């Protein structure tokens, strides 16, 4: 994992734990846990994540990129962001 990827993972984890888990359970959240299957994030939450990513990383996320392969776990979000930053 590159340093950039590690930094993105850290930022995304912190956001998810604070915003959706209310600071609880972050130590047990797997980077590969599905936000939707685990009930961590609903469809409205996905839009909040998109706004966070756009603001934090200065990227623009298109409608056709709003898919689980890009946004359904810490790992998937981090990989997606790193791809967008290149």
Automatic annotation (TrEMBL):
Residues 7-85 form the Carrier domain. Pfam families: PP-binding. It comes from the Bacteria. This is Acyl carrier protein.
């Amino acid at each position: 994992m590159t340093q950039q990827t590690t930094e993105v993972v850290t930022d995304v984890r912190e956001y998810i734990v604070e915003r959706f888990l209310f600071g609880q359970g972050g130590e047990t959240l797997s980077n590969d846990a599905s936000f939707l299957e685990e009930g961590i994030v609903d469809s409205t939450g996905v839009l909040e994540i998109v706004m966070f990513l756009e603001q934090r990383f200065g990227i623009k996320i298109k409608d056709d990129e709003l898919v689980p392969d890009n946004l359904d776990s810490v790992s998937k979000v981090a990989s997606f962001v790193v791809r967008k930053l290149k």
